[in-house]
Request: fold
Amino acid sequence: MRRFARVALLCLGCGVCSLLYGFSQLALSLEQEPRGGREWQAQDSAAPSARRQAGGGRVAAGGSAGVGEAGASRCKNVSLSFWNSYWMLPSDVCGMNCFWEAAFRYDYTKTHPSEKMHLAVVACGERLEETVTMLRSAIIFSIKPLHFHIFAEDQLHESFKDILDDFPYEGKVNYTLYPITFPTESAAEWKKLFKPCASQRLFLPLILKNVDSLLYVDTDILFLRPVDDIWSFLGKFNSTQIAAMAPEHEEPRIGWYNRFARHPYYGVTGINSGVMLMNMTRIRRKYFKNDMTSVRLQWGEILMPLLKKYKLNITWGDQDLLNIMFFHNPESLYVFPCQWNYRPDHCIYGSNCKEAEEEGIFILHGNRGVYHDDKQPTFRAVYEAIKNYSFGDDLVHSLLQPLELELQKTVHTYCGRVHRVFIKQLTKSIRDLYARRSKGR
Reply:
């Protein structure tokens, strides 16, 4: 009995010593963590030869900037996409004491998500002004820092640089410009799918390998509340969900997919990919069920076979391919309400987005070119108001009040009859912004 007690006491002593050593290593890793341990993601370097720095840490080139100093921490500074929840890390990620360092890093990212939000857009042709207006709307109300990933034709790069470098939000906004890039062996097919450059979004998880999560939007998007709010949906994903989108239609009687599609599509009316929130780490890891083989395929493996099988049956290009993918993998999609992707279809045949009627429009999507013609003056009025707003001006007198006057002129249209939904959330966003400023936030 005495011998057993001695052995137990010895084991207890060893356990206490191990625990103390572990805590000492945690404290050491805290001291050595670059930038207080708040950012570990390194930006993708698509074209480092074109890199240049603009003032205030703003990135303005075909590559991008890393966020940690090389060698500043004991562990290799790589994207969270290379880390997992198990106690196993790549051999080159950390040296001694991997167990404790992995435990600390994993726990920290669960309780302290990255403060930077990543937003991607693809701009080709005459989309410069529209894209810049979208970016302006994202900046006005957002709280956390934003990093824009702008994929554009080469001839647009200098114009983007000149405009974005004049934005007065150094420290809050960074951006990276990328060329339009498709897989070499199939570039011609992808370029001619639906619209020029439209299918670029399908390759974002493969190009931005070091970005953990991303919000992709079309150029004709306008944010009427902080980007932070749609970004927060990432925290609502369950363990199987990898992306979030809104339904293509709320009313099946006017739905396109359920009436005309010649391919599988998600849910009752399909999904619209103009606003697409992605956990790209999960996308890169997932093996997708499909109707081409009994073997599940990863994202980079499934795209080309899908195109080859359905290219004669799809109308809306990459959006159709996404519908097919999530038809076979419905558990992987989080569906957010229509007010997060409000389009003319929600009002031109009568109002059919109940959430917008109750709370207002959160994200406006001016597809069908409605910002640039007179067919839907309600949408155009919002676009012109944000385009003409000058940073720093009073939002009530320079944006909201002029917009209200313009919207009152649109009541002869179906969308104009519900014009209050276009400013309901906008009014609240302006009020909340001034409240934060009054508190010094």
